[in-house]
């Protein structure tokens, strides 16, 4: 079992190491020496105490049919709006203006295309296998604010007086306002970013919340599902902006101590050595407090060294994954050697080891002129290091005997290295 003192000391070391890490006025995370720790606190620059959980985030799990039903307007097969477009949820005057404007079709289709891109992006961000990801932790509970807007801003109507183009433009303006709210020193007197890198940092911090805003405030949902009028919609946008601004981390917050306590508190609950991995018997990994101690102490000799690598699509087949493993994994001669023998052989050219006679004859037959001259000038030592290699490991790592001989000669090119080059049978160097 892990002693309670281990976890207490672990937390204390974390606090002392991180006590000067704070949120700066430019939105970055820095220490007392102003060294950059993180471009945006928690990757989104938000205060954890302001985050609201269990907010519906269905877009990554939606099918194409569901996306069309929820976000796409009714079109004719040959192009343009259908005659029934918006008849049940759109003000007749607004509907007529859309039908007369040929550019409105393009604008509404652009909105739908952006939502399809958002779905693809969200599928890269979250784990699609985890059904709990239908709910997300976000800084503003937009669904509750929508309900408040419908209740506060007068009686409800069967149709909305909002123009879908206006909804799209105002949501886009809101997102730009949120970008400007994000703290940064790289702005001019008009609040504009002075370089593209500074703006990209802020836009990346807003990626997930931006997707959430576009999917919950899609123009068709605002008109058909929520039936918001123009006053309720403006009230909603103002509330979202205010809530988001309140959710930003306060500059000067000592977030290093918070991070240390966030690691130390769950570690205190780990009262047992968690060497096991429940349900996955094949993975022999170190978990829990022992693993935390290894990381914090930077242990050179880990109990079970392992690393998880996410492979791109081309390398997700077994044989290609093994090929990638070969290039990633560090391999030494000791890793693939099962037996090492030191043998006294007075005449290495005519070995006393019966199993190696054929190998010696073959090596002498293929020896080039340069090697023969070197052999004549400097006769080989009578002491021989005989290595027997593990065939299974050798094959798994896709090695060949030329690689082994080359690696040994790189240590000292005066070594005489002989190896059996045949793929079958025991591999000997």
From TrEMBL:
<keyword id="KW-0240">DNA-directed RNA polymerase</keyword>
<dbReference type="Pfam" id="PF04998">
    <property type="entry name" value="RNA_pol_Rpb1_5"/>
</dbReference>
<dbReference type="InterPro" id="IPR038593">
    <property type="entry name" value="RNA_pol_Rpb1_7_sf"/>
</dbReference>
<feature type="domain" description="RNA polymerase Rpb1">
    <location>
        <begin position="46"/>
        <end position="247"/>
    </location>
</feature>
<dbReference type="GO" id="GO:0003677">
    <property type="term" value="F:DNA binding"/>
</dbReference>
<keyword id="KW-0548">Nucleotidyltransferase</keyword>
<dbReference type="InterPro" id="IPR007075">
    <property type="entry name" value="RNA_pol_Rpb1_6"/>
</dbReference>
<keyword id="KW-0808">Transferase</keyword>
<dbReference type="GO" id="GO:0003899">
    <property type="term" value="F:DNA-directed RNA polymerase activity"/>
</dbReference>
<feature type="domain" description="RNA polymerase Rpb1">
    <location>
        <begin position="1"/>
        <end position="375"/>
    </location>
</feature>
<dbReference type="InterPro" id="IPR045867">
    <property type="entry name" value="DNA-dir_RpoC_beta_prime"/>
</dbReference>
<keyword id="KW-0804">Transcription</keyword>
<dbReference type="InterPro" id="IPR007081">
    <property type="entry name" value="RNA_pol_Rpb1_5"/>
</dbReference>
<dbReference type="GO" id="GO:0006351">
    <property type="term" value="P:DNA-templated transcription"/>
</dbReference>
<dbReference type="Pfam" id="PF04992">
    <property type="entry name" value="RNA_pol_Rpb1_6"/>
</dbReference>
<protein>
    <recommendedName>
        <fullName>DNA-directed RNA polymerase</fullName>
        <ecNumber>2.7.7.6</ecNumber>
    </recommendedName>
</protein>
<dbReference type="GO" id="GO:0005665">
    <property type="term" value="C:RNA polymerase II, core complex"/>
</dbReference>
